[in-house]
Fold:
Amino acid sequence: MTGLFIAVVGPSGVGKDSVMAGLVAAHPNYVLARRMITRPQDAGGEDFTETTREAFAELAAQEHFALHWESHGLSYGIPASVRADLDAGRDVLANLSRSVLDKAVQQFPTCRVVNLTASAEVLAQRLSGRGRETAEQIGKRLAQADRAIPEGITSFTVSNEGPLQQTVAQIHRALQPVSSAR
Structure:
């Protein structure tokens, strides 16, 4: 049995990590892909593995990552070990950049894409509230907020402006027919 690889995408501040944590808490078959990021651990946010640019480049060269990309001056990677969870029939949630979706669909035949959205006002408020970026960095992230899903990739869009439980339930319902058919 093969699990679903669920790519959760959307603009910075849309709440991808909160939604994924909510899915895991409500439905134990979901597991989180722990990203490796070239950002200091004390910068806050999601639970991730901190690394240096040099170490990241070396790991990428050794094919440690199933997927990796650059965004906002940082390097991000999804470990190749997620394949073991998929092979065991577990559904893996991964916080991805929209720029790497083509690769995700190629790497993972069971890939499903969840596109989270929120208004510019909500995004700006959330980005400011997390205290991780400067005003200039927030502006750059907001400028990319309406970046489209690459052509040819099927996704379903969910607004994450209401209660978290509502978003989690909507995503789970959308994924459930796929999960049950396996």
Summary: The domain at 5-177 is CATH 3.40.50.300 (Rossmann fold).
